[in-house]
Amino acid sequence: MINLPPEGWDALWLSLRVAGLSTLLSLPVALGVAVLLARGRFWGRGILNGLVHLPLVLPPVVTGYLLLIALGRTAPIGVFLEETFGLVLAFRWTGAVLAAAVMSFPLTVRAIWLALEAVEPGLEEAAATLGASPARVFATVTLPLIAPGVLAGAVIGFAKAMGEFGATITFVSNIPGETQTVPSAIYSFLQVPGGEATVWGLVALAVGVALGALLLAELLSRRVAARIAGRA
Amino acid sequence: MINLPPEGWDALWLSLRVAGLSTLLSLPVALGVAVLLARGRFWGRGILNGLVHLPLVLPPVVTGYLLLIALGRTAPIGVFLEETFGLVLAFRWTGAVLAAAVMSFPLTVRAIWLALEAVEPGLEEAAATLGASPARVFATVTLPLIAPGVLAGAVIGFAKAMGEFGATITFVSNIPGETQTVPSAIYSFLQVPGGEATVWGLVALAVGVALGALLLAELLSRRVAARIAGRA
Amino acid sequence: EPVRVFAAASLKTALDAAAAEWAGGTVSLSYAGSGAVARQVAAGAPADIVVLAHADWMKWLDAQGVLGTDPVIFAGNTLAVIGPVGDAELALTPQDIAARLGRDGRLAMGDLRAVPAGIYGQEALVALGLWNGVAGRIAQADNVRNAMAFVARGEAPLGIVYASDALADPRVAIVADIPSDVHAPIVYPAAVTASAGPMAQEFLSFLQSSVGQSVFRAAGLQEPPK
Amino acid sequence: MLRIELSHRFGDFALDVDITAGDGITMLFGPSGAGKSTIAKAVGGLLQTDQAYVQLGERVLADTSKLLWLKPHMRRIGYVFQEPRLFPHLSVRGNLLYGAGHDTDLARIADLLDIAPLLTRRPAGLSGGEAARVALGRALLSAPSLLILDEPLAALDARRKADILPYLERLRDHANVPMLYITHALDEVARLGSTLVLLQNGKVARSGSVKDVLSDPDAVPVLGPRMAGAMLEGHVVRHVDGLTELEVSGGLVWVPGTAGAVDTKIRLRVMAQDVIVGTQKPQGLSALNILPAKVVSLHRGDGPGALVVLQSGTDRLLARITQRSLDEMSLAPGDAVYGILKTVSVGPTDVFAGLD
Amino acid sequence: MLRIELSHRFGDFALDVDITAGDGITMLFGPSGAGKSTIAKAVGGLLQTDQAYVQLGERVLADTSKLLWLKPHMRRIGYVFQEPRLFPHLSVRGNLLYGAGHDTDLARIADLLDIAPLLTRRPAGLSGGEAARVALGRALLSAPSLLILDEPLAALDARRKADILPYLERLRDHANVPMLYITHALDEVARLGSTLVLLQNGKVARSGSVKDVLSDPDAVPVLGPRMAGAMLEGHVVRHVDGLTELEVSGGLVWVPGTAGAVDTKIRLRVMAQDVIVGTQKPQGLSALNILPAKVVSLHRGDGPGALVVLQSGTDRLLARITQRSLDEMSLAPGDAVYGILKTVSVGPTDVFAGLD
Ligand SMILES: Nc1ncnc2c1ncn2[C@@H]1O[C@H](COP(=O)(O)OP(=O)(O)OP(=O)(O)O)[C@@H](O)[C@H]1O
Ligand SMILES: Nc1ncnc2c1ncn2[C@@H]1O[C@H](COP(=O)(O)OP(=O)(O)OP(=O)(O)O)[C@@H](O)[C@H]1O
Ligand code: MOO
Ligand SMILES: [Mg+2]
Ligand SMILES: [Mg+2]
C-alpha cells in the first residue's frame, strides 16, 4: 500500500468529496447553461459565454482571489449568504466545492454544448409532431442523445476538480482536514525538503482515482453510444 | 488605455506568442491523438488516453515538476534534445510553449474527439465507395465535418494556454521578457501589497484577449457549421 | 478546538515540528505563500494566529485592523547562495558569479516581488554590487522550494535561498553565505488575530519559549535579531 | 376542413399556394422540388413561412398577419417524414409508443405493419422499409387530428404497400382523421384521395376532387399520359366465383375479390390506357366488362396518342388510344360505341369503398 | 461477371446466397427485410459478412476463407445508397465531382438529371428527390467498374424516373458497367434488368434471366399477380404516325413513339393483365395488336384469377384473366386463340433496346 501520513488520506477523502459534489451540483447548471448557449438567441448570450469561460482564461489564483473578494466573509454577498442561509464558503470545504465547480465549469459546459450541437434537429422535430412539449422533447429525446456528452462533461469536470489547486488554495486556503485537498497537500509537502515520497504517493493516488473515473466513464459512454447506435 | 509597467506589456506579448504557438503546434498532434482515441482499437489505447488526461488531473505544479524532471537539461531527453536539435526548453520561452501545450492538450483532444464521434459514418462510407482512400476520406470529408470541433479545440486550448500558470512557472520559472507570461506577471504583482492596480490591468488584458479569441472563434465556428448545414 | 495557524509555506518544516512539540493543545496549520496568507486573513480567514515570512505583509495586515496583538518576531533566517552539491566555494564577486553562471546559466531565486526570499535576495545583491551583473539572469520561482529545485535538478548552477532550506536538501550545498547586514533583517513575524480563541496566545508564547526556539534551531532557523 | 394559405421564398424558388381541403385525404402531387414537403412542414409548424394562414377545423394554427404561430406540439398533427427519423435510443416499441398515451392499439398496428417481430429491436438495425413502417406506425399511434404523410410508402415494396393501403383507407373512413398525403404514385392518389392538389413550381396547377381532376382531359399533361383515368361510382350487387358484380350508372361491371357487402357504395378507378373502344359489341373475349357508351369528345395529343371521353350512364370514362386507331375507326363525338374493360385491369388497388 | 457468395447472421435473420451475374444489370428484387441492402453492402465492402466470396471479372474482392477483404475504396464500386448521403460541406457540384477525376461529363449528367440549376447549392436545401438525383449523378461520375444502386429511383416522381431510366439503359449498353440494382418496382426490373434475383428471407427464391423469370408462371406468387408478364423480342420494321411497327415472332405489333432505327432489336414487356384472350378475331376495336396464338397451359390461382400461357410464334405470352372468363370461353391447351394487346399498354417504359 501507499504509505501516507494521515493528512494525506484526509486530503484524498476530502478531494473525492469535493470533486464528487462539485460535479454533481454543477452538472445541472452546466446542462442548463450549455442549452442556453447552444440553442438560445438572447441578449447577453455573449456575456454569459464569456463569464463561463473566464475561469479557463484567468490564472487560477486570480479566480480564487476574485471568489474571495466576492464571497469572502466580509464581502456583501458572503455576508448575505451567511445571514440568509447560514452558508459560509470562504475557508470551508463548501468553498472548495464552489471553487472546483467554477474551475471545471467551462469544461463541462463545452462538452455538453458540443454534444447538443451534434443532435439531429429532425429527431426533435419528430418528437414535437408526436405531441411532446419542448420540455418533454428535451427530457426524452435530447437528453438521452447527449447522454454520452453529459457523461464526458461530468468526468472531465470531476478530473479537473480533483486537480484544481490555485483557486482552491486562494479561496479556502489549505486547512488540513477541512480545505486541504490533494493538490493543496501536494503543495504543502513540496515545501518540505524530503517530502517527495509523500508527494509521489499523493500524486499516484490522485492520478489513479481520476484516471479510473475517466476510463470508467469512457466505458460507460461507449456503452451508451453503442446502445444508441443500436449495436447493443 | 490601461496603465501597465513595461514588463506587463512584455508579458502580454509573450503570452500571445506562447499561447498562439502552443496552439498551432499542438493542434496537429491533438488531431492525431483524437483520431487514434476516437477510432483506434489498439493495445495501449487506455494508456494513451490516461497520459493525455494526466495534466488535467494533476495539480499544475506537479505537471511542471514532471516536465522539469523529464525534459530538464540534465534529464536524458533534455540532453538528447539539446545535443541533437540544439533545443533547450528549461528557462526558455520554448519551454513555456511546451508547458502550455501539455496543459491544454487534454482540452483540445477532447473537443476534437467529441466532434469525431458526431461524424456520420455513412458519409465516410460514401466517400470510400467513390474511390477515396482513408487518407483522402479523412482530409476531404472527416476533417471539414469536424472543422467546428477542431476550431473549438484550438480556441479552448489557446484560452487555457493564456491562463496557464503553475506548470509554466515550475518548468521555466518567471524570467521577465523570456518566460514571464501574463499569469506569472499577475502572480508576481498579486503578491505585492498594493500591486492590485497592475494586477487588474493585466487581468483585463488577458481576459480581453482570450474572450475575444473565444467569441471570434465561436462566430467562425457558427459560420462553418452554418455552411455545412447549408444555411449559408 | 485546535489553534488555527495560517502560515507562510516556507515555514512548514519548522512549524510542523513546533506544533508536534506543543503539549498545550492541537494546532491546525494551513500553509500558503505569505501574500496569500495575508490576504486571506484580511478577508476573514478563521485564523487564530498568522505567521508570515516578511514584515511588510505583516505591516499591511496590521493596517487592515485584523490583528489582535502587535506582531512579534520569533525567528530569523539568513540567505545563502547554493549550488549543486560538490561545487566549490563561491566568492561574492561579479567575476566569480559570472564564471559560475557561464554563458547562459541562471541564478534561481524566489519571485522578486512575491516571495520574501526573492525580495531579500535582490536587496542583498544590490547592496553587494552584484545586481547589475545578474539582473538579466534571474530565474524566479513561485516559492523558495521551487527555486531550490532548479538548482537541485541541475537547471541552474546557482540559487539564493534561506540557509535553513539549503541545509535540508542533500542535492544542494551552500557555496556562499550572504551577510545578514546587506538586506533588511529576515524575520518571521507572528500575531494573534482579532478573532483568535483563548489558546492562540499560548501557542504563540510557546513559539517564543526556549522549547519552541530549540525546535526552530533544529530546523535551521535562527534567533530573532535583536 | 383544412385551410392552407402560404407564401415563402427560398432563393429562386417561390411557394405561393391557397389550398382548401375537406375531410378525408388531400393528396399533394407534383414533381420533385415542386414544394410539397415545404407545404407539409409549414402546416406541421416545422418551417415558418414568410406568410401563413393555416386553419384546421375550428382551430387556427397559424396566422402570420396576427403573429400567431402555434408550436408543432400544440398542433396535434401527426407527421410521417420522408426519412424515418426514428429515435435511435429507443426500441421500436419505445418509438411506437412515444406519442401514444397507452399501448391499446400497439399490437394491432404492429401486426398490420408487420413489425411485431421487431418490437424489441433498435432502429439502427432496421432495413429501409422496416424503418419506414415503424415511422408510419408511430404517427398512427399518436392519435393526431391531422396526419401529414410525406411519401410514406415510397420505401415499401408493392406487397407491403398493398397491405398498408387498406389500413390508411380504414383510418380515413372510420377514424375521421383528415390527412395531407404527399406522393408520386397516382394509384395511391386514386385509391386514397378525396381532394387532389397538383403542384408545379410552388404553385397549385389544379385542384379539386380526385374524381374530377383525374378524369379531366386537361389535367393529363400535368399527370402524365399513362396516369390518366376516370373514376366510376357504383354499388355491390352480388358476389360470385370470387368476383364481385357492381352496378355503375352505365351497366354492370365485374371486379375481382369480394369488395364490400351487397349495396356498399364503391369507387372504381379505370385507367384510360385500360379501356378499349369498340364500334361493335365484341364476342368471345376474355374481357368481361363491356359498357355501352357515347363518344363525348376527342383530344389528340402531341404524340401518337389520343384521349376519348366517353359517357357511360351518368359517368365519364377516359380511353387512351392511338390516333391511328382513332382514324381507322373514324370516331366522332356522338358515336355510340362500347367501352371494354378487362376485368382484371380493375385490380384490387383500384377498387375502394366510397367516401361520399 | 460478378460472383457473390455470402452468408451472414443478424440475430434471427440469416442471409445465405450464391449469385452469379453476367454483364448488364442484375436486379435484386424482394420484400422489405429480405436482405437486399445487406448483400449490396457486403459487395461494396461496407459490411463484412461472416462468410464472403465476391469476384468481379478477374478481380477477387473478398474471400473470407483466404482472409481477403478489399477495402471499399479499392473495389472501384460506385454506390447509390438508399439515403442520399451527400457531403453537407460541399456544394452539389463538389459532391458530383468528388469521385470524378475531371469534370468532362459533369454538364451532361447534370442536364440529364435536371440538377444543373442546383450546382452551386448546398445539399441541406435540396428536396428529397433533388438529393436522390445528385447522389445518383455522383456515383455515375466516379467511373466505377460496378455500380450498386439501392432503390435509386424510389424518391423520384414518375416523370423524372422515366427521364433517368434511358440514361441507365445507355450506361448499361455502352459504358459496359455491370450494375447491381435493388428495387421494388417491376417496371424497372423489366426495363433494365438482364438477370433477376428474387430474394426472400435472406435466400434466393429464384434467379435467371429477367425474361425467363418474369414469364415463368411459377414465379408469379413471388412477384405478385399484378406484376406477371412476358417478354417479347423483335425488331423495328417502320415508323408511321408517331408509332413504330415491330415484327415479333408471332406477327406485327405497334408501339407508340419511334423506338430505335429500322432493324434495331427491341424487347417488349407485356404485362399479363394487359393481354385479352379472344376466341374469335375481334373487329372494330381500338386495340391495334392482335396476335394469333395457341393456348399452352392454364394455371388457376387461389383467387378469382387464372394465368393463360400462350405460344405466339417462338415467344410465350402470359395473359391474366378471370376464372369466370376461362370457364365461359371453355379454353383448353391447344386451342387456337388471339392475344389482344392494347397498343398503348405497351408504353414507353416497357419497350427497350435489347441486350443480346
Ligand atoms: N445492423 C443490423 N443489425 C441487426 N439486424 C440488421 C442489421 N442490418 C440489417 N438487419 C436485418 O437484416 C434484415 C435484412 O436487412 P436489409 O437492410 O438487407 O433489408 P432490405 O432487403 O434491404 O429491405 P428494404 O427493402 O426494407 O430496404 C432485416 O431484417 C434487418 O432488420
Ligand atoms: N432549406 C432550404 N433552403 C433552400 N432551398 C430549399 C430549402 N428547402 C427546400 N428548398 C427548395 O425548395 C424547393 C421545394 O422543396 P420541397 O422539399 O418542398 O420539394 P418537394 O416537392 O417535397 O420535392 P421531393 O418530391 O423531391 O421531395 C426545392 O427547389 C428545394 O431545393
Ligand atoms: O512561504 Mo513564502 O511566503 O513563499 O517564503
Ligand atoms: Mg419532399
Ligand atoms: Mg434496403
TrEMBL record, chains A, B:
Pfam families in the record: BPD_transp_1
Coiled-coil intervals: none
Keyword check for Ligase: no
Tree of life domain: Bacteria
Xref: SUPFAM superfamilies: MetI-like (SSF161098)
GO terms assigned for molecular function: molybdate ion transmembrane transporter activity
Listed GO CC annotations: plasma membrane
Domain ABC transmembrane type-1 residues, every copy: 12-221
Transmembrane annotation, as ranges: 12-38, 50-71, 91-116, 137-159, 197-217
Entry keyword Transport: yes
Recorded topology in the membrane: Multi-pass membrane protein
Keywords: Cell inner membrane, Cell membrane, Membrane, Molybdenum, Transmembrane, Transmembrane helix, Transport
Main location: membrane
Protein location: Cell inner membrane; Cell membrane
Entries under PANTHER family matching the protein: MOLYBDENUM TRANSPORT SYSTEM PERMEASE PROTEIN MODB
Similarity comment: Belongs to the binding-protein-dependent transport system permease family. CysTW subfamily.
Protein purpose: Part of the binding-protein-dependent transport system for molybdenum; probably responsible for the translocation of the substrate across the membrane.
Name recorded for this polypeptide: Molybdenum transport system permease
UniProtKB/TrEMBL annotation, chains D, E:
Cited Pfam families: ABC_tran (PF00005), TOBE (PF03459)
Glycoprotein keyword on record: no
Coiled-coil residue windows: none
Domain Mop: 284-350
Top-level taxon in the UniProt lineage: Bacteria
Molecular functions per Gene Ontology: ABC-type transporter activity; ATP binding; ATP hydrolysis activity; molybdate ion transmembrane transporter activity
Keywords carried by this UniProt record: ATP-binding, Cell inner membrane, Cell membrane, Hydrolase, Membrane, Molybdenum, Nucleotide-binding, Translocase, Transport
Domain ABC transporter: 1-226
Name of the molecule in the record: Sulfate/thiosulfate import ATP-binding protein CysA
Species: Thalassobacter stenotrophicus
Taxonomic lineage of the native organism: Bacteria, Pseudomonadati, Pseudomonadota, Alphaproteobacteria, Rhodobacterales
